[in-house]
Amino acid sequence: MANGTTSFRPSGRAAPPPPPPLNHRRPPPLDDAECDTILTVEIYRAENIDKSTKNLDDYPRIYTVFGFVDAPENEFTTQYRKGGPNPQWFEKRKLKLENYEPCNNMFLHLEVIRVSRCMQDPGTSRGVEVVGRTKISLPEIGQKVVRQYALTIMENGRVSSKPRGHIVVGLEMDIAMRQRKRYSYSMY
């Protein structure tokens, strides 16, 4: 060995490289607990809704959209918008989905609600009426979908077979990494 030859291990392999110094250790690997599933919902507009009030052009009709994904903590409401039978919102909401599994059948439920402050506008005694609702399957992770969905109403305790307008919605499912704690290693 003194003459410049290298030593070989009995297996014929060279010795492995030394481990990196302690201050250069890699952080622990990611696991599923460090990722969140985020659903981005974009509410664009509703079309041809609320035909029951078409003769009330002198009174403003105010609409909002209420949405949720199979759990109370995953709900949202849009801003109130004045409009005829075609209100527009152009709003975006992000929902963090707990316990999301692609094989689970989870749905986004949307309700277009008319809020009335006018006593001559037909509706409920509270002045709030659902003018249409829909149930939308969630897209796959990494997929963005923009579609028009039919709105239905309840008549006599049953879902009506006739659509009552449409709502235009964009959905995108994505994975977000949680902020990782910074690890510092010191020799002291």
TrEMBL record:
Region (Disordered): 1-31
Matches recorded under Gene3D superfamilies: C2 domain
Ranges that cross the membrane: none
PROSITE patterns from the UniProt entry: C2 (PS50004)
Residue ranges annotated for the C2 domain, each copy included: 16-153
Pfam families, alphabetized: C2 (PF00168)
PANTHER family per the UniProt record, alphabetical: C2 DOMAIN-CONTAINING PROTEIN, C2 DOMAIN-CONTAINING PROTEIN-RELATED
Identification of the protein by name: C2 domain-containing protein
Source organism per UniProt: Lithospermum erythrorhizon
Taxonomic path: Eukaryota, Viridiplantae, Streptophyta, Embryophyta, Tracheophyta
